[in-house]
Amino acid sequence: MKVLRLLALVLLLLAPCTLQARWIKDKVLYTVADASNVEFSHYRHLEILGNNCPSCHNDIFHIVTAKNPETTMKAMEEGKSCGVCHNGTKAFTVADNCDACHAQ
Ligand code: HEC
Ligand code: HEC
Ligand code: HEC
């Protein structure tokens, strides 16, 4: 079953990315110990990026979430994880705008 699900996902990722992606879950919650939690919205990003799954998967974030290490802000400022885009060029930078991602 797990293999089938992965296969289906791989096929989907290879398909032209014009499809409506409402079957995936929207919010991904990052619990952050020493700052407030971060809620990532799939739907919002798909709206902005035009339903383009490969812009994140699997180079930046693996869909098998266990393969994604916890990241630090320092690593993001150096262009990892969210920081691939949130660098002040493609999107607002992680070096600032803390409350755009962290609720408080
Ligand atoms: C802007 C980046 C971005 C885009 C674009 C994106 N995702 Fe994701 N996706 C993420 C992040 C971040 C996670 C969470 C990773 C983690 O928890 O370690 C995730 C997780 C997932 C997961 C695993 C969810 C879980 O809880 O196990 C699936 C499945 C997934 N994405 C599918 C898709 C599909 C299909 C598309 C295109 C329709 C897509 N994603 C587009 C960033 C993105
Ligand atoms: C683009 C969204 C985004 C912005 C902007 C952002 N963060 Fe984060 N931050 C995250 C995410 C996501 C995590 C959790 C990463 C993980 O667990 O893999 C995190 C984790 C953290 C952590 C815990 C890990 C560490 O680096 O010690 C702290 C503290 C933190 N952020 C502070 C800040 C501060 C201060 C700012 C503003 C200067 C900021 N963040 C801006 C998304 C963001
Ligand atoms: C593939 C590029 C890409 C990645 C990776 C990415 N983002 Fe974004 N994100 C964008 C773009 C583009 C925007 C909109 C541009 C802007 O507002 O500067 C955006 C906007 C946002 C917004 C504002 C949403 C709104 O409603 O306006 C938040 C919050 C956010 N991202 C959080 C995150 C977090 C947290 C991560 C990592 C888990 C992440 N993003 C990873 C490209 C990306």
Automatic annotation (TrEMBL):
SUPFAM superfamilies: Multiheme cytochromes (SSF48695)
Signal sequence range: 1-21
Keyword Methyltransferase (UniProt): no
Keyword Signal: yes
One Pfam assignment: Cytochrome_C7
Keywords of the record: Signal
Domain (Cytochrome c7-like): residue spans on this chain: 38-102
Domain of life, source organism: Bacteria
Protein name in UniProt: Cytochrome c3 family protein
Organism of origin: Trichloromonas acetexigens
